[in-house]
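tool_call: predict_structure(chain=1)
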Amino acid sequence: MQRVAKPSHLPPLNSLRAFEAAARHANFRKAAAELHVTPAAVSHQVKALEECLGVQLFYRQPRALELTPVALACLPQLREGFGALAAAAELMRSGSRREALFLEVAPSFAVKWLGRRIDRFVSAHPDIDLHIEAKPQGIEGRTGEENGASRALVRQNSVAIVFGSGHYPGCRSERLFSVTVTPMCAPGLIAGGRPLRHPRDLRYHTLLHDDTLNLDDGRSRWAAWLLAAGVDGIDIARGPHFNHAALALEAAADGAGVVLSYPLLAAADLAAGRLVAPFALAVPLEQAYYLVYQHAAAERASIAAFRAWLLNEVRAVTAE
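tool_result:
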């Protein structure tokens, strides 16, 4: 087993640095220039190291230095050790500049929208350690108190992307997206045995329920969309329920039925042709997506950077 010297048994670091530089240059004068000391100082440090270790490290020739076998044997490990010290010092320097940012976000928004873009933020801000925490419930629902948002965002370096009302006392909220809902399904259902040409054709298909869209009294949002479409007589109680929009959208893309959900979250699936929206009618919701953070945290560098990046991404999507 290799024996590891304890720190107290190590020779002085300055002597080791002087020896490594002198060995690399085979010259005290050049080593001294690199270390910003005099040649005599380098010679003194090397001699002190030889006395400390009880070995000879150089054959001192009139015009050059020649390493002894002992010096040749230890030099590679010494250089490796100085490299490790330099790497550790850089890690400490970079660590002191890093800042953690905690982002609370609904799981479906994280998977279907944010996750497709977040690499751009990470690449642009390597000094920020981003921690994404999927929270299935909006921050206004986490407590019955009026200042629920402020209590939820207790960390000064935390922000949330919330689907809700936008009214969060004690916090600053900025609207990101207004939201509409429309039926979506796999392309195969459009021209299948029971083609979807009119909203009334939904009676022949399985309805998928995204329960995140339910009204305050628990009723399915399908009722409101069918009312806006002027269609009645469809049993909206049938069909499976999902507690995340992403699950409902994935089931629809797999051909399980027709889902009423957000085109915003389904944008990539719609663009790829995995989903289609058979009807032009999109019903707007009262709620929207908001960026929320405490007033006192607005000037934090990490939050300001994330806000600027996010709003730029939102503008790009809106422009499209």
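agent: Residues 1-7, 139-151 have pLDDT under 50 and may be disordered. Proceeding to next step.
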